[in-house]
Amino acid sequence: MLAAVMLAETKFGRVRSDSHAGAQGPMQFMPATWRAYGMGGDVQDPRDAIMGAANYLRASGAPRDYRRALHAYNPSRAYVNAILLHARRMKRDPRAYYAYYNWQVFVLTTEGERRLTGPK
Questions:
Q1: Residue 13: which CATH number?
Q2: Number of separate domains in the chain
Q3: CA 62 to the chain's CA centroid
Q4: Whole-model pTM?
Q5: Residue 91 belongs to some domain of the structure
Q6: Fewer C-beta neighbours within 10 Å, C or N terminus of the chain?
Q7: Residue 57's CB: how many other CB atoms inside 10 A?
Q8: What is the tens place of the pLDDT at every residue in 85-112?
């Protein structure tokens, strides 16, 4: 589940900018949420961010109710459905993680679209 969240949020940490709303780090925490659930870690550190996300999801109902916990993380039905779909695929076949990890990542900059990953 955490890998699926990190995929959606920052393409496994490869997109390193803050969100337009101010979310930060590889798991995209809002500052107040990070203060509450980040356990004193560094929001930019992947290990700390993953542990903070696990802490937040657990406090929000996981593993008993992943749908509820994910909705607390990002209140979008499409987001929740996408995370659950990706997590199921990775659980069913761990090779799916590698396939997701190797997806090309493009970002839109002031100079146009730029590829962060993938074949050149």
A1: 1.10.530
A2: 1
A3: 16
A4: 0.88
A5: yes
A6: C
A7: 21
A8: 999 999 999 999 999 998 887 777 777 7
